[in-house]
Amino acid sequence: MTTTTEATEATEATEATDVITGARERIDALDDRIIGLIQERMAVSAVVQDARIASGGRRVNLSREMEILAHYSEALGKPGTSLAMTLLELCRGRI
Q1: ∠57-63-68 over CA atoms, to 5°?
Q2: Does one domain contain both 65 and 52?
Q3: Are residues 49 and 89 in the same domain?
Q4: Which is nearest to 86 in space by CA: 94, 77, 76?
Q5: Which UniProt keywords apply (predicted)?
């Protein structure tokens, strides 16, 4: 025979599993949106680079990249700087 404690623990375990499953599905959906936004950012960055090169400028604007790094760092701390570096590399390639 199942005790009240065992039944409560089983219910709590099932509820936890449901919460985890739902949260993971939401995370997966957010990751898909983030990837889409990064791809969009890459396309916009390519437009900027092309326009800059066509007007006689350089492919990369280091002062602008420093602004981006500072923005991410202020918003997310030190990991934000790493994230921004990765985004910049994805969007302009290695320099």
Answers
A1: 120
A2: no
A3: no
A4: 94
A5: Isomerase
